Amino acid sequence: MTIVVDTPGADRLGEVVDVLRAWQYEGAPMQLHPGDLGWFWRSGAEATAGAVRTWSRDGRILAVGLLDGPGLLRLTIAPDARREEEPARRLVEDVTAPEHGVLPAGRVNVEAPADALVQELLAEAGWGVDEPWTPLRRDLTAPVRDPGLRIEEVGPERAHVFAAVLRAAFDGSEFSAGRWRAMAAGLPYADARCLLAYDDRDDAVAAVTVWSAGPGRPGLLEPMGVHRDHRRRGHGRAITLAAAAALRELGSSSALVCTPSSNTGAVAAYESAGFRPCPEVRDRYRDA
After folding, report:
1. Low pLDDT (below 70) residues in the chain
2. What is the 3-state secondary structure (H, E, C) of the chain?
3. What is the per-residue pLDDT for 1?
4. Does the pTM exceed 0.85?
5. pLDDT of residue 101
């Protein structure tokens, strides 16, 4: 059967989320997670649907991509199809040719699982590798130690506080209480939690969102940030410990996060909370 690329409507996003959940497993390479769609959902269901691409054969989804910015496609592939030549060549054809409408002309990046044949085919087509990112993983078999700060689960009444901490953690962030409500209305948020950490003066100092993919599967931290006025005090470790504990309560087998390798402070914070670095990953890119 012919492989078909599609932009699903908002009414089909549930199918995409379910597929991504099913593709998460222990030992999998770092890949697109249902939590990535959940975080994108802060822009609303219609915008999320417009940013999703699926590749299907005979009615079965073989690959899912998220256009996470004008020139970045975050792509993952069904585990049993990652080394299959037909879908890999179709994916490369679609992302390489601007007229196919998946990626625009000019500088573009593709994120794909490290073990996927797509990686090798893009290299053969002359795509380079971009700056390294460090995935980190924490096993959740054992209980997580107390973070040492007061932790609050965020609901609608505290969304404005959560949003303010994220804006203070990430330069240029436009996150708002309205965007939190849009995110919380999304399908993936049924398996998610937003947390705030408070210091001994009862100031909100750090925030995190955690996304479960279901019991027995790896969960994701996206995003985690510490208020710029409260850094270098161990708050990143504390909120990361709280995140790991929340994922364990949700039934996740492990907690995953990925950060630029150049962000040594973030890598150190995750390691201090019991996360272990995995081999670095890099996007493939094509110059203009």
Report:
1. 1
2. CCEEEECCCHHHHHHHHHHHHHCCCCCCCCCCCHHHHHHHHHHCHHHHHHHEEEEEECCEEEEEEEECCCCEEEEEECHHHCCCHHHHHHHHHHHHCHHHCCCCCCCEEEECCCCCHHHHHHHHCCCEEEEEEEEEEEECCCCCCCCCCEEEECCHHHHHHHHHHHHHHCCCCCCCHHHHHHHHCCHHHHHEEEEEEECCCCCEEEEEEEECCCCCCEEEEEEEEECHHHCCCCHHHHHHHHHHHHHHHCCCCEEEEEEECCCHHHHHHHHHCCCEECCCEEEEEECC
3. 66
4. yes
5. 87
